[in-house]
């Protein structure tokens, strides 16, 4: 049977993906996906987003961030998670990867909505829309939509978990960021100086809300996607004010 040039390239991409998957630890750790880029060469135009981080530079995430397709974003549950990406395959017979041995780690900070980027972020695709500096550290930007292998990895953070306090006296909304370990926060409870534990709910992204009036020093109980739980005693000290950011301990 005669094979077309297009079929030949697709087969080559598949074989290369499988071989890299084998070298890097097999199909259980690594998965196939694709990357695109957005924003300017210095990372401009990539701030804000569906995780609520606003300024990722100020929060320490830099340009190694990613807007995830809805399959990976999970309604905001993946915010703060870390992924290792490796460029794996030629596109249309051309090698757009700088180096197959090179990889980067990115933090999930945004959603790549369905219908954007030519439909690459539509379900069930596993897709990462990267700031241009992150993309070009793996592949030539001329490649556009580029195949990768990806896997979840632990997040290495400097300092402790941080809490930015927002809301009003009757509506507390806390941005939880700089979370190490699994990185993705799945459950949060809060304890005031004069109250017991109160469950918080995800308002959106990494913003967690409590409608119970909470006073005094604040203690948080955080559970991440790997099931680990950390209690941060008095992470926010008595006398706190809205708009302040406080730092506690960290997952190890």
UniProtKB/TrEMBL annotation:
Broad class of where this protein is predominantly found: secreted
Glycosyltransferase recorded as keyword: no
Domain spans labelled Expansin-like CBD: 170-248
Subcellular compartments: Secreted, Cell wall; Membrane
Membrane topology: Peripheral membrane protein
Domain Expansin-like EG45: 48-160
One annotated GO biological process: plant-type cell wall organization
Keywords: Cell wall, Cell wall biogenesis/degradation, Membrane, Secreted, Signal
InterPro entries: Expan_Lol_pI (IPR007118), Expansin (IPR002963), Expansin/allergen_DPBB_dom (IPR007112), Expansin_CBD (IPR007117), Expansin_CBD_sf (IPR036749), RlpA-like_DPBB (IPR009009), RlpA-like_sf (IPR036908)
SUPFAM superfamilies: Barwin-like endoglucanases, PHL pollen allergen
Record has Isomerase as a keyword: no
Signal peptide: 1-25
One GO CC annotation: extracellular region
Membership in a protein family: Belongs to the expansin family. Expansin A subfamily.
Reported function: Causes loosening and extension of plant cell walls by disrupting non-covalent bonding between cellulose microfibrils and matrix glucans. No enzymatic activity has been found.
Record's protein name: Expansin
Origin species: Physcomitrium patens
């Amino acid at each position: 049977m005669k094979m077309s040039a297009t079929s030949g390239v697709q087969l080559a991409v598949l074989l290369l993906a499988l071989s890299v998957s084998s070298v890097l630890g097999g199909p259980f750790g690594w998965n196939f996906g694709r990357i695109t880029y957005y924003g300017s060469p210095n990372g401009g135009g990539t701030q804000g987003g569906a995780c609520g981080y606003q300024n990722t530079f100020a929060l320490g995430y830099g340009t190694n961030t990613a807007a995830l397709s809805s399959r990976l974003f999970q309604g905001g549950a993946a915010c703060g998670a870390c992924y290792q990406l490796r460029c794996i395959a030629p596109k249309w017979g051309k090698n757009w990867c700088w180096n197959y041995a090179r990889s980067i780690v990115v933090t999930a900070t945004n959603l790549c909505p369905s219908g954007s980027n030519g439909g690459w972020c539509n379900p069930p695709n596993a897709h990462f829309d990267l700031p241009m500096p992150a993309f070009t550290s793996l592949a030539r930007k001329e490649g556009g939509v580029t195949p990768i292998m990806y896997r979840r990895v632990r997040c290495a953070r400097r300092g402790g978990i941080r809490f930015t306090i927002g809301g009003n006296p009757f509506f507390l909304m806390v941005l939880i960021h700089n979370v190490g370990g699994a990185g993705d926060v799945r459950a949060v409870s809060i304890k005031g100086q004069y109250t017991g534990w109160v469950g918080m709910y995800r308002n959106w992204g990494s913003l967690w809300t409590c409608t119970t009036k909470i006073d005094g020093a604040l203690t948080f109980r955080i559970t991440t996607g790997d099931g680990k739980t950390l209690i941060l005693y008095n992470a926010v000290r008595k006398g706190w004010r809205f708009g302040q950011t406080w730092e506690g301990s960290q997952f190890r």
